[in-house]
Structure to design on (274 residues):
């Protein structure tokens, strides 16, 4: 698959799907849903210029520190963390770039994810301000908040329907602007959900991304996923998210085991290292 990708016999999209599959990611498990990168950082221009490197996100950095400002806070958090019991290793992020709640967050307008979201929120929609209501605002929140490290899901590159409230769900209204949350607000350069998907997919297959995608793959699936390289790249997540970090079979206490299982399911899981 690698050779095919290098020879450009398969697209960037196909290559990412294949890597996700090999690393145990699947559409059938929200806790291990396929993970895709944010690839753009320009969500405000009238036109999207894919020949300009400045419109792309820096793929060599974890999303939590793409904004330089956050890097210092993330570093300090890691260096100052001390677990008195010695169980929890130091980490940069207490949340994860891919977890069940994040998948439902993006797909809230489409069943069965709507129902799953309502179940997760004890029988109702989460408050409107926390809903996925705008792509530019979601990106801005990532840039401002080092604790929000959500990457994307594959649907952002082929499935325009998830951006529309076709079922007419009442998702509430934003507290300050009183704006009703309905269809997802798109970047200025996208004239419709279909147009967004078309341009976003072209961005994924662009020359710039083809030349830099391997840097992101190293962080998520490769050698910068754990160990000294991960520390250096500011890419260490909470210990429970790593494969083999916890031996559930060794836990005799049923309650403790259930708690840990719940944590692993909700916190997100780092893909198997390839």
């Amino acid at each position: 698959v690698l050779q095919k990708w290098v020879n450009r016999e398969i697209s960037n999209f196909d290559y990412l799907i294949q890597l996700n599959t090999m690393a145990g990611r699947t559409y059938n498990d929200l806790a291990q849903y396929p993970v895709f990168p944010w690839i753009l950082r320009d969500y405000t221009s009238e036109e999207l210029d894919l020949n300009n490197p400045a419109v792309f996100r820096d793929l060599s950095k974890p999303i939590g520190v793409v904004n330089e400002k956050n890097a210092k806070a993330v570093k300090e958090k890691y260096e100052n963390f001390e677990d008195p019991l010695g169980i929890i290793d130091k980490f940069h992020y207490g949340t994860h770039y891919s977890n069940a709640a994040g998948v439902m967050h993006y797909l809230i307008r489409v069943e069965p994810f709507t129902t799953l979201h309502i179940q997760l929120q004890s029988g109702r929609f989460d408050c409107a301000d926390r809903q996925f209501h705008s792509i530019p605002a979601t990106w801005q929140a990532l840039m401002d908040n080092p604790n929000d490290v959500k990457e994307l899901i594959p649907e952002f590159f082929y499935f325009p329907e998830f951006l529309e409230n076709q079922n007419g769900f009442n998702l509430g209204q934003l507290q300050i602007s009183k704006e009703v949350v309905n269809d997802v607000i798109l970047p200025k350069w996208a004239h419709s959900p279909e147009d967004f998907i078309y341009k976003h997919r072209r961005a994924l297959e662009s020359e710039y991304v083809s030349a830099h995608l391997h840097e992101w793959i190293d962080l998520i699936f490769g050698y910068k996923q754990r160990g000294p390289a991960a520390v250096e790249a500011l890419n260490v997540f909470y210990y429970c998210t790593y494969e083999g970090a916890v031996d559930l079979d060794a836990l005799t206490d049923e309650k403790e085991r259930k708690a840990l299982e719940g944590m692993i399911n909700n916190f997100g899981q780092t893909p198997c290292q390839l």
Notes: The mean pLDDT is 94. The CA atoms of residues 82 and 137 lie 34 Å apart. DSSP finds ten helices and no strands in the chain.
